[in-house]
Every structure is written in structure tokens, then in C-alpha cells.
Amino acid sequence: MAVHAAEEDFEEFVVLRSQSLLRTAFLLCGGDRGAAEDLLQEVLERMFVRWRRIKGPPEPYARAALANASANRWRRRSRKPEADWELAGTPSVCGHEEQVVDQDAVLRALAELPPKMRAVLVLRYFDDLTELQTAAALGCGVGTVKSQTSRGLARMRELVVEVTR
Amino acid sequence: MNGIGAAMRDAAEGVDVRAGFTGDVLRGGRRRQVRRRNGIALALAAVVGVLGFGAGMAMRDVPPVSDERLLAATKGDLADDREVLLTATVAWRAELTPSWTRDRGVTELRGEPHVYWASTTPVGDAAVVMQEGKVREQWRTLVGLVARDPADGFPKVVGTTNPEDPTAGTESFQFGPGDRTFLVVDPGIPVYASPNATRNPAGVVRRTWHEVPVVDGVGVWTAPDGVAPSTVRLVTSIGPPISDIPAERLLTTRPASAYLRSGVHAKRNGAPAYDTRMWNNTSRKQLRVGPDGPAPSPDSDLFQALEDAHMTDIGPPGNTGTWCVYGTSGTGGGLLVGEYADGDEPSTLFALLFRADGTLDRVQRGPAVDFGSPLPVRVRLPDGQGWVVASSQYLGIAYRTSDPGDWQEAQTGSQAALLPDAAVQVRVGSGTGEVVVDLPR
User: Fold this and answer.
1) Torsion over CA of B399, B401, B403 and B406, rounded to 10 degrees?
2) Average confidence score pLDDT of chain B
3) Please, is B402 exposed, middle or buried when counting C-beta atoms within 10 Å of its C-beta (0-12, 13-18, 19+)?
4) Hey, is B320 helix, strand or coil?
5) How much is the pLDDT for B55?
6) Segment B5-46, tens digit of pLDDT
7) What pairs with residue B110 in β-bridges?
8) Predicted confidence (pLDDT) per residue in B182-193, tens digit
9) Could you tell me the CATH number of the domain that includes residue A91?
10) pLDDT category, B222, cuts 50, 70, 90?
């Protein structure tokens, strides 16, 4: 019954953490909701197979897998941008107009960043990972995280200004 | 860019998973697991083949088992087909989810799945898989059938035994296109199949039986064209069954399509669904009619009387109505009218006629309950004894023997009445709510 217990654990994890993970995936995909669902489902299905061999808390594992999968995914499809610029940033929540514009600008700017840089920013500022944790999740050095963060923030500023102009 | 985290959170707020996402993930994960195990096992099989080990090389510990079938070599013409065996065991493992075991009261599994039989059938390759499971502290053999799902062509578990359900304990399955093919794991005594039931003019049920050949430990039988699989019955019998077949000899089956789509609670073959034709919505359940005199108990066992008269089909018991009309007939005997839905048949009216001494004289099968009529119960008794009529919604019954003609009050304020045999029309209700119903001649 160990197999069944593991599957129950996994199911509980999916039920409890999918919403949070989907939001990470949403940002990693530059605001493409459909792509985010596909990405998360793919990552979770892979985790199902490996579930009993995952060491440590599964959520950081999932976030790292999402970040890496999103980067790889973009590499595979780099010749053909997946999200239409006009559609990519469509927010799913209606609110104050200014807030909508701001959210739209953030998503558009994220979508413009290189995938690795986007992943660094999402893990650092949305998932609140430390530089060390981000480096571990992405399989790179802390120095790379520092430089990607610095350059990413600078690029985001430029892009947000361009989008909202 | 200060506040980028907050901006991201604002942007992602409201993004939530779609309904059914968890189920999609679990299904996808299981599919990946099956594919992965397939790949690993095929690679292992290839390695074993290269190294020259025989197919029977044991690669695992064999636990003590109580069912010798779990230790027997696989039977069937595909017993040596590794891909078929592997597919069957992989499908079985994927099927035994926590909810599967929980629904069946299985608290523990032991040993490895064993392919008892693998063979070609008229509807494609199939395999019977067995494994021990602990149910209420006892080790039981769980049995499942792996066959191709006609909906997508993929091999799947299409039926399993359920040790928690006594009506589902037989090792018999129903699968293939239209669920027309039946498979029985050798119960040790001959198996007979009957495609459908017929009734003679008196309503007595008749069935013809064909012995199902059991080959390599399994019997496979396909329903003839034109026969609804739901009318098929399988029984174990030393010789050809004649009548009075004990219910415990019935081999129940659940259609694979229902198992695959609805899971463990799908109805089993022969079990009647809830029948909306049943005339069950009257507030009064026991309606007395006729003159004063001896009358049977309104609690008389209609089903037993029908069974004794061979008017019920073998299979799970049907539905009797929750009402009855009872009383004294014009000849001084007793009468009781009720309804019974057998299998997929419409719910039908039956009249039990008793002698003056209270013994059952005869059982008469009437028409189907006319559920949509204001007078759903209209039974003409034999030998000119009259009509038994009843309404579920109207109070007050009158009749007349010609049209036009004068109306005669039968039972003021009542929902049921015994009318003269010459009656041709019945009026129910009163005032503006009156409704007239013709009696069929």
C-alpha cells in the first residue's frame, strides 16, 4: 500500500499547491494562461512518476522544475513566439483601469525577457527565493543569479516604460 | 523597479486552476508511469533474452498464496506473448488506485499481479489478471479483465471483481464492442448462457441455454446479433438449467463500458434501473376494493407468488411497487393487484386470485402500468370477475357500461375500485377535474 499512500500524498499536494504553482507558471510564461496550465500539468505529471524519489519538500522542486521547463520550452519554440503580443498580457481579473494597465505592462515586460532572466526574477520576487535557492533551482551559480537579477530589473524598467508610454 | 514582487502578485492574482485539473494530472501521470514501466520492462525483457534466461525465470520472491491459480503458469494462446503479459500487468497496476482499493475494502495488496490467462478472443486480445488483496483481514484473490476499450482501442482493465459487493463477486465479465462478449473464469462446474427470456401467453418465463465451452480455464461467449446484452444471463449448472435456477448460480457481469465510464457503482447486467413507470406516488399504499368478505393480506408477497408461478426472470430481483389493491372478488375469493418490473421490461401489473379458503388460485399477468394515464391501473380479471382500476392522483371513481350511458359511482372518495366486467369507461376525479378513461376490450 506504500504506492497508494504516495499517490494520495501526491494528490493532496496537487490539490493544495496547484493554484500557487499555476501563478508561478503564469508569470514564467509571460502571462499566457493556457501555456501556464500546460506547463504545470506537464511538470506535475513528471513529478507523479518520480514522486517517491523526490527528496525534500516537493514545492521547491516543483518551482524549480517549472522554471527550468519554461526556459527549455522557450528554447524549443524560440523561432516562433507562442503568445501573441496583444493577447499575452490579458489579465484574468478585472479591476481598476490603472491596475489593469499596470498588470498588463508587467506581464508584457516579463514576456519580453529572455526565459532564464524571467525565471530568475519570478523565483526571486514572486516566489521569494533567496539568491542561493534560486541558483540551486536553476542549476547555475549565485553570481549568475545576481547578474541576471540586476540586468533583468533594469530591462523590466525599460520595458514597462515602453509599454505604458 | 521597486515593488516588482507586488506587481507580479497583482498580475497573477485570480489565476486559478481549471475544474478537473487534479484528475487530469493524475491520469496523465499514470499514463506516463505506464509508458515508463513499459519501456523499462521491455528493456529488461530484452536483456533477459540476450542473456539466455528462460521466460519462467523468477525475478521476484513469491509470497505464500492461498489461491493456487496465482502460482499456475499463464494459460491461453498468448501465454508466451511477453508484450501482452506486460501490458496486462501494467494496466492492472495502473488501475489499482487508492480509490479502487478503498471502494472494494482492500487494505493491502500482496505479491505481484499474475496473468492467469491471455488469449485472442472474437473482440481482440484479452487477459485475466489476479492478485491477492486483504479484505477484512482475509486474503482474497482480486480478479480483473484487461481488454481493448472499443472507444479508443487501448488495452485497459475493463472489469474487476469486488469483494465488498456480494452481487459482484463472480469472476465474470462483459466487454468488447457493445459489451456483447462475456467471459467467465472457470468456476469448476459447467457454465450456460441464455441470450434472452421469452414469455408464453400466460406470462411464464422461458429461456434456452447453451453451454459455454471452457478452454484453458476461461469461457468466452458472444451474444447473437439482435440480442440486447442486458438480457443475457450466465449461470453455473451441472446440466442444462430447466427452471427454478437458484440465484446463487447466476454469474453477474458489469458492462465494460459502464465500468470504464462510471466506475464501481455502474449497474450490473440484469439489475433494473430505477423505473419511472412505477406507480409509486400515491399517498395511500393499500387500497381496499370489492364487497365485504375474505381478503388476502395487503402485505402478501407478490414477488414470491410471481416467482412460484415462474413469472420472474432469473437475475437480480426486480422492483415491486410500494402499493397494492386488495379485497374480495365477486365470487367470494380474494384478490390482490400490484406491479413488478423485471429486468429491462416495463413495470407490469399482476393480479393474484385467491380461493375462499385463502389459498392462491392463480396468478394473472396484466398490461404494463400506464404511468402517464390518470388511471394507470386497469386490470381485467378472468372469468368475468370484473376490472380492478386505480388512480394515483384522483379521488372518486365512477363507471358506465355504455357510451353514452349513466355513470355509476363505484367508490366515492377512493382511488381504487372493482368494477363490473361490462364497464367500458371510467371517470375519475370530481367537478371540473373529471377525466374519462376508456377500458380496452
Assistant:
1) -60
2) 84
3) exposed
4) strand
5) 36
6) 888 988 898 898 888 888 888 888 887 777 766 655 555 544
7) B132
8) 999 999 889 999
9) 1.20.140.160
10) very high
ipTM (interface predicted TM) = 0.80
Q: Between A2-28 and A33-50, two packed helices, what is the crossing angle to 10 degrees?
A: 150
User: Is B9 an interface residue toward A (CB < 8 Å)?
Assistant: yes
Report whether B61 contacts B52 (CB < 8 A).
no
pLDDT per residue as tens digits for the range B317-342: 677 777 889 999 988 899 999 988 88
Min Cα–Cα distance to chain A from B267, Å: 27
Q: What is the DSSP string of B361-419?
A: EEEEEEEE--TTSSS-EEEEPSTT--EEEE-SS---EEEESSSS---EEEETT-SEEEE
* Residue A59 burial (CB count, 10 A): 15
Q: Angle B97-B101-B102 (CA atoms, 0-180°, nearest 5)?
A: 110
10 Å Cβ neighbour count for A94? 9
Most A CBs within 10 A among B2, B8, B22, B33, hence the mutation to make, goes to B8
Distance from CA of B78 to the nearest CA of A (A): 29
Residue of chain A whose alpha carbon sits nearest to that of B33: A49
Please report which helix (H) or strand (E) contains residue B336, including its range: strand B334-341
Rounded Cα distance, B42 and B53, in Å: 15
CB A28 within 8 Å of CB A67 = yes
Summarised one tens digit per residue, pLDDT across range A137-157 is: 888 888 888 888 988 888 888
**Contacts of residue A76, Cβ cutoff 8 Å, sequence gap at least 6:** none
Q: What is the pairing mode between strands B286-289 and B324-328? A: parallel
- Return the closest-CA partner of residue B58 out of B104, B102, B111, B11: B111
Is residue B142 packed enough to be buried (19+ CB in 10 Å), middle (13-18) or exposed (0-12)? buried
Q: Which domain holds residue A70?
A: 2-164
Distance CA B381, CA B439 (A): 13
